[in-house]
């Protein structure tokens, strides 16, 4: 690599790093993810996303106007061949407190889930319960997970296609019992950026062997669909995510969110001008933008 190429690579990485830190900082502010004196338990799986999250949180902590602590936690699920030395050695280089939690969820999953079936659901529930309990044990006030924008959008389509629910992953979530708060600092980050970031930082990535070998997982199908959409229409995933932030319950069909049954007629106020003059509509002046929002018709 010549000197010009090296300078260009450094310049591109600096732009990437600033973009990721800005996105994480904005997500934290928008959803009040981290507050004064918080103890943030960063859950590190060994994948690129959680490594990037931890790295960015540590950098932001150094420059943040508030004081908060970051604790790294890995749940060792006792998967065969899992390289137990990698994460402790990496955490040692960061000079931050860390814990390795030993919990044999692997055996439970393999016992309960038939061969060839998706293990992700049970695995995530077992993992969540263990991490929730451990967060209380160490006094952590926030649990940080490494889900990014692509994960959130994929989850929404998974729930729509396979669960008949309009539901995704929230940037911030309080557990059902109210005892824990989960945050997703990478909410505004794209996976493509995180891949480039992890490659440049040379994180010691550990693949998930529990479910990674299963083919045709539903999430992989959704991911492929979104990648194709993004290629054909750049920015589509960002727009889908923005739609999750811009919800109009009265324009959907959930009777629990909006009272469709009791909609009184009220003509006491000023009438909205919604009539078209006949002269205004002709084949020569019809614009496509007129038909983009037809939900109120």
Automatic annotation (TrEMBL):
What chemistry does it catalyse, as a reaction equation? Answer: cytidine(32) in tRNA + S-sulfanyl-L-cysteinyl-[cysteine desulfurase] + AH2 + ATP = 2-thiocytidine(32) in tRNA + L-cysteinyl-[cysteine desulfurase] + A + AMP + diphosphate + H(+)
Q: Pinpoint the tRNA(Ile)-lysidine/2-thiocytidine synthase N-terminal domain residues.
A: 41-203
UniProt-listed Enzyme Commission number(s) = 2.8.1.-
Motif PP-loop motif residues? 45-50
**What are the record keywords, sorted?**
4Fe-4S, ATP-binding, Cytoplasm, Iron, Iron-sulfur, Magnesium, Metal-binding, Nucleotide-binding, RNA-binding, Transferase, tRNA processing, tRNA-binding
What subcellular locations does the record give?
Cytoplasm
Q: In which pathway does it act?
A: tRNA modification
The residues that the entry says bind [4Fe-4S] cluster are 120, 123, 211
- GO cellular component, as recorded: cytoplasm
One matching Pfam family is ATP_bind_3
> Top-level EC class, please?
transferase
GO: which molecular function terms?
A: 4 iron, 4 sulfur cluster binding; ATP binding; magnesium ion binding; sulfurtransferase activity; tRNA binding
Which residues, by range, are in coiled-coil regions? none
Record bears the keyword Hydrolase: no
Question: What does the entry give for GO biological process?
Answer: tRNA thio-modification
Name any cofactors this protein relies on: [4Fe-4S] cluster; Mg(2+)
The entry assigns this protein to a family as follows: Belongs to the TtcA family.
Q: What else is known?
A: The thiolation reaction likely consists of two steps: a first activation step by ATP to form an adenylated intermediate of the target base of tRNA, and a second nucleophilic substitution step of the sulfur (S) atom supplied by the hydrosulfide attached to the Fe-S cluster.
The record's annotation in NCBIfam families points to: PRK10696.1
Q: Which HAMAP family match?
A: TtcA
Q: Name it.
A: tRNA-cytidine(32) 2-sulfurtransferase
Q: Which organism is it from?
A: Vibrio fortis
Q: What is the lineage of its organism?
A: Bacteria, Pseudomonadati, Pseudomonadota, Gammaproteobacteria, Vibrionales
């Amino acid at each position: 690599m010549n000197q010009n190429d090296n300078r260009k690579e450094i310049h591109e990485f600096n732009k990437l790093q600033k973009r990721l830190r800005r996105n994480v900082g904005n997500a934290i502010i928008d959803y009040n993810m981290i507050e004064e004196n918080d103890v943030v338990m960063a859950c590190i799986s060994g994948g690129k996303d959680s490594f990037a999250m931890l790295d960015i949180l540590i950098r932001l902590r150094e420059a943040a106007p508030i004081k908060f602590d970051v604790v790294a936690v890995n749940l060792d699920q006792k998967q065969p061949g899992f390289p137990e030395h990698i994460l402790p050695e990496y955490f040692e280089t960061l000079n931050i407190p860390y814990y390795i939690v030993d919990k044999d969820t692997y055996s439970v999953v393999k016992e309960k889930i038939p061969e060839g079936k998706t293990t992700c659901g049970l695995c995530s529930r077992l993992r969540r319960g263990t991490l929730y309990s451990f967060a209380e044990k160490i006094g952590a006030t926030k649990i940080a997970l490494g889900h990014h924008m692509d994960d959130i959008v994929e989850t929404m389509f998974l729930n729509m296609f396979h669960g008949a629910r309009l539901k995704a992953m929230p940037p911030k979530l309080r557990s059902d019992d109210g005892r824990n708060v989960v945050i997703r600092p990478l909410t505004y980050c794209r996976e493509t950026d995180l891949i480039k970031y992890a490659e440049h930082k040379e994180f010691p990535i550990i693949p998930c062997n529990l479910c990674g070998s299963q083919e045709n997982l539903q999430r992989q199908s959704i991911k492929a669909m979104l990648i194709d959409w993004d290629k054909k229409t750049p920015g589509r995933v960002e727009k889908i995510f923005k739609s999750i932030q811009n919800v109009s319950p009265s324009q959907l069909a959930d009777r629990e969110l909006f009272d469709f049954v009791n909609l009184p007629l009220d003509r006491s106020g000023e009438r909205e001008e919604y009539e078209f003059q006949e002269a205004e509509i002709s084949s020569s002046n019809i614009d496509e933008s007129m038909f983009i929002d037809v939900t109120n018709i």
